[in-house]
Request: fold
Amino acid sequence: MKSTLTTLALTALAYFSCSPFLPAQPEDLTQVWPAQWIAPANAPWKSYAMHRFRKTIELDTVPERLIVHSSGDNRYQLFVNGERVTYGPQRGDLNHWYYESTDIAPYLKPGKNVLAVQVLNYGSHPPDAQMSVQTGFVLAADDQSFRFLNTGKGWKAIYDPSYSPNLVDGSQVQGYYGGGSREMVDGQQLYWGWSDLDYNDSQWPAAQRVESAFAKTCIWASRWKLTPRTLPHETLTDQRFQSVRRSEGVVIPKSFPQKAAPVTIPAKTRTILVFDQGVMTTAYPVLQVSGGKGASIRLEYVEAPNIGPVKDRNKGHRGEIAGKELIGYYDQFTADGGKKRLYEPIWWRAFRYIEMTVETQEEPLVIEDFYSRFSTYPFTTEASFRIEGIPEAEQDTLDKILEVGERTIRLCAHDTYMDCPYYEESQFEGDTRVQALVSYVLFGDASLGKNAIEQFSWSLNSEGFLSARYPTNSTYYIPNYSLYWIGMLHDYMMYAGDKSFIRQKLPVARILLGYFLDRLREDGTVRRPDYHNFVDWAFPRGEAPFDDNGYSALVDLHLLLALQWAMELETYAGDFHYYNQYQSAAEGLMEAIPKYYWNSSRQLYTDTPEGIHYSTHTNHLAILTGIVQGEAAAQLMRRALTDTTLTQPTVYWQFYQLEALQAAGLGQEYLDNLGIWKTMLRAGVTTWPETTLRSRSECHAWGASPNYHLYTITAGVKPAAPGFEAVRVAPQLGEGQTLQCTHPHPKGNIKLALKKENGKLIGTVELPAGTTGELITETGAIELTTGTNRLNLTKH
Reply:
């Protein structure tokens, strides 16, 4: 074997190190890597730009296995002999800059081979969740024998001038946007075939070495701290558009777009095609064209078309486009006149509709194909839920609610959880707690939840807060969201256990609670926290109401809830010193909250002591914290559900409203409280909007709480001990109703086949090996053991 480096010494090294008779010599990647970060010479390293890299080698034989470790800043894709083999990096921060490890042996062949890489830097307009040092790429072979592959000497690199940014502004989106710039690609300047084996790169200059690559564990200072990728890559599945909903000035073949078929746009023509995926998606659009030199093709991504001014957010039925305007951000590609030119952005896009605007010049353009590659975190559905004995229309509605909820969760799960894939792509604690719980129940997968807990903990500041979103390149704090991180840690403890991880994160929880405990007044309540005291968008600016003295029931109740979570965490994996401290503070709040906020004349908890503001939110938390229990809780919950003068919850807070419904002993009424989801379904949504039908975002995963509550309330399955070591099953069935449910568990699956007959439960409850629990019935608790438990409570 010989490398393309010309020195005799390197050629000899390459030959002997690739001998199949020599054992692999793994590299030590814990300190300084045997590779350099590289970038194109004389290129804009911190501006928006596309950069390309190549390394050509020759092999006499192909090894059975050849792992390479690679990373890029901001986003990169690695090709071997023209095939994409990996991409990334997994999103982290500068202290945790992830690299991918890939076996490239299956893509190699005897003789000439090429490694090719493209790296996109978003420059001054990156996604909020994207951190950066500067443009760079690094690659190191895992085997010392293949060091000639490593970035540094022998790599070529060039700045590709064909890419420029579409800086998303108010003409493209309304409201806050944090998803980064989109792409403008001029095919007339693009290096077509740049990743192919036979591409002529003789005019490409040598790559410039930026600095040595350092592991996160390295003793020396560095800008990128490299650490192994912790999550699997997303699934990539080709999908076809359902239909072309609108076309102007062009004939569309009947088979297109569900199958590839040529669509010819005449010369000197402007035409618009509206493609409908049928449902919201996150996907890489793939466009193949021929001819049409100088033609521009704009791909505008739309969640839902608007009726009237965009600022009104009046979208009507999401499946109707007649008389509506499609407005969104876009990518734009200019054809160079070549054959079978393929355009695909380097990062997925969120959309249901794509409005394609084509403007041809002197030549006709042929659209040979247009489809997309669906991309989400690789969750596998393990859960199933079916209830019978209710009207068929209601069953169909429940099925649809579950379908839309699962789609919403999936589209908001990528390298991290995301509040929404269209506008922000950001991981927030408030959103993520709901998303993680749904993931534990639907998929039995705690990896992305653990990743979120870990990443949020990196953002701890000196004041005692976590960033409200993380990873992020900006600063934003929501005090209550730091408390919900403690809730996330508690949820993870219950579903996954993992005592060593919980113990590792408890110091962070102690610092967060320390901020609030330092603000306690002598009367046990909390002085107003700093920053954005967000609770729900139902309130002005989303903030909890305060009186002039800084009193707020919602702040006090959130702290009480967090203290209760923390006491259980400390019992499981911590220190009774902190348990006792939290218990003392919780007792003070339990005494102070009724004193300051209970209004006996209205029989409700008020948001502030003077009794001006009332919300469902405060009363829900009074139930969830156990300040009100038993029959009093049930009565309070009924008042909160029926008193329309209270501030009402949006989609997000429905999660806590329905948690309170269960805590108040009214779980059997859960199916009667799905009105907000039924209303949205009637408007044709395919994912859950952020707040109401007039939301900015059409896809916000905090709305998927029915995919959690149908299992935990109606089926009644919950962990009764950390790590799901014990199971509590409390089904909420009406007379004559039958339940079939599968719920994932760390040791297998929990399966319910139950029916309520003559006021009693009959059927089976199956628990996985090594698991015990109890079934809660109207007549008491029944012990459950490993295996199949057969129930005939008519004999009980």
